[in-house]
Amino acid sequence: MYSRKFEAQLFASQYTNYFAVACLTILIADYLQTLDLEIALIWPTRWNLVKVMYFANRYLPLAFLPVIIFYNVAPGPLSPEACKVLYTVPCMGIAFCLLISEVILYIRVYALSGKTRVMVMFLVLHGGAVILTSLVLFAYYLVLGKFAPSPYPELSGCFGVSSGNSKYVVACFALVLYSGLVTMSLCIWCGLKTYWISKHSRLVKIFYRDGTFYFVMLVVLSLANGLVALLAPAKYRFMLAIPQEVMHNVITSRMILHLREHARTSMGFTSLSSDGRIDFDHVFSTGCTVDVANLRSERTTDKETDVSYNPIQRV
């Protein structure tokens, strides 16, 4: 009865694991490549919202991806209840990681906009609606999932028998894509206003250039994942879910590290303060705003090397 479905599931699990192992390799390589920056730029700073989000975004996927890999190769026999727990916990973890990355991107848009009250209200209401709806839909998908004893436990210990619930996951992907389009548009709009006023500020160039590039990449990934989930055969439907989350993780982590690195070098913060902290916590860690008046009045030929030139100030 279940032989054909089991064969399709086994095939999908095999290819999903290929992507999962590749993504775990990318995560580890990225972690090792940027660990020195994290130690220098993140660890000594004060705890705040962005630092908490950074560490959650950085380390949670490293904990959940191995569990997903184990689920796909777990030897049997396993009880249906054990399989559901083994499947649900890492899936919710990966979903949380993806949404944490979205929150970090919202914080970047908030900083680039100048921290206006209108923008913060919009981002809180819009982001809250997107995140809450996505979590509810994904949780509902997981609750509806059902498992049965594996007909071939020597090949796979878990066997999912639920069907027809993938529409909830597709809806989540659509919400992430919509959120990415909104944040990308806001980033470009706010960035253009700042960029044309402060063309000579290297820090603002980094803030705008990297942000726009990252947003465009994330939208392309979300679009590809949504199209595959919507149009591909069932066994291929969710193969890009893990790569999308991992690229969100890598891009948002590097975005924070690059901004802090350029803030340290461009604004003269090259050493630790007396209490052992790096004294540039005002840049992106608590949010930053662009002082347009300063940018207009301080356009000098040596502003890129003048330590006193600070186009981004704490509010």
Oligomer: single chain
The CATH architecture classification is: Up-down Bundle
- Low-confidence runs of at least 5 consecutive residues: 267-315
Structural class by SSE content: mainly alpha
Number of helices: 8
Cα Rg: 22 Å
The side-by-side strand order for the widest beta sheet comes to: 1-2
Give the count of structural domains.
1
Helix fraction, binned, reads: 55-70%
Our measurement of the CA-to-CA distance between the termini, rounded to an integer number of angstroms, reads 65 Å
Transmembrane segments: 15-32, 52-73, 85-107, 119-143, 168-192, 213-232
Protein name: DUF6533 domain-containing protein
Domain DUF6533: 18-63
InterPro entries: DUF6533
Describe the protein in words.
- The structure is a single chain.
- With 315 residues, the protein is mostly helical.
- The protein is 70% helix and 3% strand.
- The protein has a two-stranded antiparallel sheet.
- α3 packs antiparallel against α4.
- It is globular, with a radius of gyration of 22 Å.
- The protein starts with a helix and ends with a strand.
- The model is unreliable at 267-315 (pLDDT under 50).
- It holds the Pfam family DUF6533.
